[in-house]
Amino acid sequence: MAIKLKIPRAKAPARDARSSSPAPVSHFSLSDPIVRVATTFFLVVTLVVLGVFVGYYVKYERIIDRRLHGQIFTNATKIYARPASVWVGEGITAEEIANQLRRAGYIDADQSSGVGSYRLLARGIEIHPGPESYHNQDGAVVRESGGKIERIVGTGGANGRDLSAYELEPTMITAVDTEQRFKRQLVEYKDIPKVLVDAVTSVEDRRYFQHGGVNYWRFMQAAWVDMRQGGARRQGGSTITMQVSRMFFLTPEKTIKRKLTEMLIAIELEQKLSKEQIFSLYANQVDLGQRGSYTITGFAEASRSYFNKDIQSLSLPEAALLAGLIQRPSYLSPYRHPERAQERRNLVLEAMVDTGAVTRAQADSAKAAPLKLAPPNVEASDAPYFVDLVKDSMLSRYSERDLSENSYRIYTTLDPDLQKAAAEAVQLGIKQVDAQAERLRTRRIKVGSGKNAKTEVKVVPGPMPQVALIAIDPHSGDVLALVGGRNYGFSQLDHAVARRPTGSVFKPFVYAAAVNTALNGDGNAITPASLIDDSPGTYTYGDQIYEPRNYKDEYHGVVSARFALAQSLNNATVKLAEQVGYDKVAALARAAGIKSVQPTPAMALGAYDATPLDIAGAYTVFANGGVRVSPMLASSVRDAHGELVENFQAERTPVLDPRVAYVMTTMMEGVINNGTAAGVRGLGFSAPAAGKTGTSHDAWFAGYTSNLLCIVWVGYDDYSDLRLSGSSTAAPIWAEFMKRAVKLPAYRDVQPFQEPAGVVDVRLDKATNRLATEACPDTYTVAFIAGTEPKDSCDQAMGEHRGILTRIFGPAPTPPPPIIGATSTTVRPAMPAPAAGPAPASQDSKDKKKGFFGKIVGIFKGDDKPSSPPEQKDGGNKPH
Questions:
Q1: Are 604 and 509 in contact (CB under 8 A)?
Q2: What is the mean pLDDT of residues 65-75?
Q3: 538-541 long-range CB contacts below 8 Å, 24 or more apart?
Q4: I need a surface site. Which of 14, 549, 758, 851 has the fewest CB within 10 A?
Q5: What is the dihedral of CA 704, 707, 708, 709, to 10 degrees?
């Protein structure tokens, strides 16, 4: 019998519920459209990210390869000084010569270098210029003994010859590109002392030699700190490799994208370079502060700038200081903030103790050491105004791109030793000018009233005096030193090329135009002995009236031209210009390079503007035998391999007859020996020199020796009146500079000025300005263009001045004695080279002793001696 069981049917689930089974697998089934969309999205994103990563990887790989296989460091143009020379007998050691050569790009002889190499010997140094040297490849062996050069023997083309001097490779002043200027000395890892590597890695990247470019743990720590502090104080987290990435391939902007790129490049760098190579890149590129106008780039340059020593010679505290500066070079500047720098240095030393690089005792000893920085004489080594002029000059010939990318070498005319002398002279001199300006502004002011009244001393605020100094070779036009202001960091305005009224430094062009009349041959020549009326006068030019005044309204009556120039007499000079012709004076000045001059009476006193550099060029007319030589900043431009790109030559323009130039030089010798610039002698500068003071709103001094011409200007930027004379401001700076210059081997051989053929030296009686005889023992010597010298003797002049009663009733006149020495009037066909040494003081510097007749003639004929003691200040009248 069949049994029928009834099995209860399970409750049928709802159709929707059955179709969407809760089984886990079904949630991630690719059949699920959501899963498919999500998966597709994920894959697309992944592929995009991967593609982007690969794209960036390839992109930066190419950039890295291109940079590493090309010029790693910047291709900026480098500016070099003129070659320095070493001389037999000079006090310099072989090691010091080696230091100079290293700074010029030479390396040890065991290595190869395109520029050159050297090898230190037991008592000397062997120098080998390379194919890329500024010079040819003739070398030299320099022997020293007791700290002095004993002998120099040429090699190469000069093989075996004894040399008196040898030119070293020019040293780099700075490198410039379109954005900045910097200094760097390249070094390899093996040249970096271990103590510096330890100091840097201890404070910047302790696991540098272990990680692969990115320290992820440190990076996450830094990111966490940043998030907690809201980014108020950003943590770096960058390894040294990441910093190298940023230095060479990225901008300094702080974004997430740049950070990721920085990490990517760091990883790639670690795959391509060794740790030592990466550290070398870092050591040569890191920014370590500012000195004057340039950035200190790299540890080697920082070692030179801060301690004046090679990188290999760094001590523990010095290495720690440099490592500490990496964080914030400006904020931690040891010159401006020594306490901050010292604190940071000590922190680095503590870090070195933590890493085991030094012991506790070593660190404590280093902490106790003072900073011991090199003197911060920026101008001496930097010449920032000069560099600006060179750069501007080059930008007028080459594009910015050429200067930034072609690694040009610009060889300039700057002499580093003379530039140092100029910077030091300006630094000392401007302090004295400041003191004088402060005295002029000092006021005694009554404060309060009645019994409570008292007097207080206050200094009225005012502008700060500025200064410019230019030194050039008067025969080549080379600008050897240039200071364009008192502080480049304070003002970059280059006063060496700023147009200012020239004041009395213009006067020699008036007298040169007057002496030029000797060439006319018409018998109306004006000579240094010609007499000029120095009395108040009124001059008209067109519809204008000009009334010059002398300093302190002191007038000297009839004076000689020589005396008028020596004492810088305004009225006498304007009268002379009127006599010669304003147009002739203006034409001469324009030919000499003072282009703004107009033929007016005020021109004679320097009313028209010129730059100190213009005046330097103009004075070469006097210092270079009548030929104007244009000032020159650079001698040549060469490419990165030393091949010549362009050479420069100074323009030479004959302006004056050599005889006129020489006569003017002798007249300006009188300015220094017993005129308005006699203070120069009082300051100890005794070499033969000629010059002229100048005072308008500004103060000037222009002077020269046989081998150096120097212009000094002092004034205010706002054109207000300095109220100080050139003799008390500019001339002392000039004297200080020249005293330092003549101590340098290249400029110590100062000769008396060489007299050209056709000039005669004549002894004149001071009282009569006639030829001296034994009856007129008070004499002085004057140079004349042959044929223009006085013909009458002093005793003849005395005879003419005997009164009529004396002539009738007096005794018969004594027959005049013969003229002293025929040589005094002999025309010399040529002047042999005079012996070295300072020139004897001019005869007219002696105290004048007049006889009875001399006093009478002096009253009526004028005198070469001032009626009052010679003033040290010239030109009391301001040019209109």
A1: no
A2: 74
A3: 539/574, 539/578, 539/601, 541/582, 541/600, 541/601
A4: 14
A5: 40
